[in-house]
Amino acid sequence: MKPNVNPDLDLTISRIIKAPSSAVWSAWTDPAKFEKWWIPAPALCRVATMEVKPGGALVTEMSEDGGPFQHHLSACYLDIQEGRRIVFTNALLGGWRPAPTPFMTAIITFADHPEGTDYNALVMHKDKETRGKHEELGFYDGWGTVAAQLAKLVEK
């Protein structure tokens, strides 16, 4: 299913990553690689749980300024298409359990491109206010920074 982008509710980021889609996929599905790019540096990421399957949990923690790790994200994978697409939401926790504070659903796609991988992230929100809040929190800077970190990791 190809999602319809609603500019009133959705935020998107795209870039060509000069590496094979298999490398980008691996960076999304291998916890040790994921920790290297998922949170803008110099903050550190730790993967507490990564069950890459529909209904599986994705739980990450972050440490800023070398301090103790704090909760960052609790989400549930909704759809996994090996090497092509990952859909997750923080509206649910692992095992399809409703989350206390739903915020967004993300659809990440990976397509072959003559220069490597056509990488797209679509982040959907329930209303304009939530979308606006995410944009104000720095969506483009944050998701753009981590996409650059992802590219740097896999373009070696």
From TrEMBL:
<feature type="domain" description="Activator of Hsp90 ATPase homologue 1/2-like C-terminal">
    <location>
        <begin position="18"/>
        <end position="155"/>
    </location>
</feature>
<dbReference type="Pfam" id="PF08327">
    <property type="entry name" value="AHSA1"/>
</dbReference>
<protein>
    <submittedName>
        <fullName>Uncharacterized protein YndB with AHSA1/START domain</fullName>
    </submittedName>
</protein>
<dbReference type="InterPro" id="IPR023393">
    <property type="entry name" value="START-like_dom_sf"/>
</dbReference>
<comment type="similarity">
    <text>Belongs to the AHA1 family.</text>
</comment>
<dbReference type="InterPro" id="IPR013538">
    <property type="entry name" value="ASHA1/2-like_C"/>
</dbReference>
